[in-house]
Write a structure and sequence with these properties.
The complex is a heterodimer of chains A (152) and B (118). Chain A has 4 helices and 4 strands; from the N terminus they run αββββααα. With 152 residues, chain A is α+β, with helices and mostly antiparallel strands. Chain A has a 4-stranded antiparallel β-sheet with strand order 1-2-3-4, with helices on one face. In chain A, strand 1 and strand 2 form a beta hairpin. A 3-stranded antiparallel β-sheet of chain B has the order 2-1-3. The longest helix of chain B is centred in the first third of the chain and has 31 residues. Chain B is elongated, with a radius of gyration of 35 Å. By secondary structure, chain B is of the alpha+beta class. The chains are: A alpha+beta (152), B alpha+beta (118). At the A-B interface, helix 1 of A face helix 2 and helix 3 of B. Chain A: Pathway: Protein modification; protein ubiquitination. Chain A: It catalyses: S-ubiquitinyl-[E1 ubiquitin-activating enzyme]-L-cysteine + [E2 ubiquitin-conjugating enzyme]-L-cysteine = [E1 ubiquitin-activating enzyme]-L-cysteine + S-ubiquitinyl-[E2 ubiquitin-conjugating enzyme]-L-cysteine.
Amino acid sequence: MSTPARRRLMRDFRKLQEDPPAGVSGAPSENNIMIWNAVIFGPADTPFEDGTFKLMIEFTEEYPNKPPNVRFISKMFHPNVYADGGICLDILQNRWSPTYDVSAILTSIQSLLDEPNPNSPANSQAAQLYQENRREYEKKVAAICEQSWQNL
Amino acid sequence: MSDSQVIMKDETCSTANGKSGSMESTKQDAEVKPFTLKKWNIVAMWSWDVDCDTCAICRVQVMDACLRCQTENKQEECVVVWGECNHSFHNCCMSLWVKQNNRCPLCQQEWMVQRIGK
């Protein structure tokens, strides 16, 4: 059944294929366009470089008026990512705009990786290390980057 | 040397003959009229001389019906709304959005309707 949300997602998918943003990719799951699998590559010259992080995006029929639920499937160590992979990002909550699409969501999460917001920590250990012991923080990040290659 | 000159002369001659000959045949053709134009079709293309905006909410051009109206077969009822900020959307798309947040989704200014129409 085709609904406005599903048609919008088809347009998002077409745009993602025609104009793919650097370092991210995503596609609807095989039998449900409301659930997408995505990969974000850790940006170069950041502690996340070479990481390949899998995510799952779940949309509702209210999309694009309501944001999707996005979470990391790969283990993540980041001040704004919860232990269950949930992401604390304003544009996915109170700053959501219906003009965003999958491409915008993925590139925003990609830029969040190296620009964490320590004021709204979802992982207090990561937030603390980021502010107080950058070397230890980067060591932990390097470990999850290495882990990310193991379950591709 | 003299031989080749003779040949050249001949060639010039024959060309001149050929020319005059073809002119005569053109005259004859015009009189016989082997073809007459009975009917022709003109094909022209047109497009709006304006930038057609895409509705940033549903990603369909504002001059076409929005995704919701296309799904519900209400193409005729789908109109465009312009805000005071000069951003335009499908009225259907925008009326759903302002229920939860009365701001322009593009510039975040408070949404004030400037005009509704086609």
